[in-house]
Write a structure and sequence with these properties.
5-stranded mixed β-sheet, Nucleotidyltransferase, domain 5, 27% strand, 2 domains, 6-stranded mixed β-sheet
Length: 240
């Protein structure tokens, strides 16, 4: 049995695979309790694991895994990827972005794709000719909401994603319009740019807020919140 772990800024996602079949997924805020993780490993007889982590819990999590799993692959250690990395500073490239690129390259082989991930950040990840070329990073929905609340004296904290009018008639609507409609316009602008300048074939939405922006924009031809997991599975297959 294989365990795939995507540890992000706010959530950690676990996926169990039996060969190529996904058996179970689990998503938790912050870290899974050590005893629960060990029970998961032992009860499912996990012998192989791949770990991608951008969180502060990386080293404690890796220590637990290395003590209980025979084959452990850590993206922070530098692995062989099924895609070329044409990025000027590959050492600073987020491992989640690499995983998404690998997933898209397998799904849409030899095509150009823009993978847009909606999480703590909105990341734009462009691949073509079987290589990751780069993209853009901007603040995500709740990062923007928190910033408006924390960095001003009177603006309230908004914590829900609601369909919002372009013209805000009160402060709540004005904030949600600025953040949600602002991101929507930003996303559509990048999509249009890549179509006009790079012959874009595919648009993929992923991450926690992917379905919301798919409903608003209807610009993606594929939507999968757990796309990083899919990419990590591709990378794991490359190692074996």
């Amino acid at each position: 049995m294989q365990l795939i772990i995507d540890s992000g800024n706010t959530k950690t996602k676990f996926a169990l695979y039996q060969k190529h079949q996904e058996i179970k997924t689990l998503s938790v805020f912050n870290a899974l309790a050590e005893a629960t993780l060990i029970e998961l490993i032992e009860s499912h007889k996990i012998n192989t694991c791949i770990l991608s982590s951008v969180s502060l819990t990386h080293e404690p999590l890796k220590k637990i895994l290395s003590n209980h799993i025979q084959e452990l692959y850590d993206l922070n250690d530098g692995l062989n990827y099924p895609i070329d990395i044409a990025y000027l500073t590959p050492q600073t490239l987020g491992k989640d972005r690499i995983a998404m690129a690998c997933a898209a390259n397998k799904q849409f082989k030899h095509q150009s794709s823009l993978i847009i991930s909606f999480g703590s950040c909105v990341t734009y990840n462009f691949i073509s000719q079987d290589a990751f070329h780069g993209g853009a990073i901007s603040p995500g929905v709740f990062t923007r909401f928190k910033s408006l609340n924390q960095d001003t004296a009177n603006l309230p904290l908004i914590e829900t994603l609601d369909t919002t009018p372009q013209l805000g008639k009160n402060t709540h609507q004005s904030i949600t319009s600025g953040v949600l409609n602002g991101i929507a316009h930003e996303v559509q602008g990048f999509i249009d740019y890549y179509k006009e300048n790079h012959g874009l074939n595919n648009v993929i939405f992923c991450g926690a807020d992917a379905f919301y922006f798919d409903r608003v924009l209807k610009s993606a031809n594929f939507v999968e919140p757990n796309y990083v997991i899919r990419g990590l599975k591709c990378i794991l297959e490359q190692q074996q």
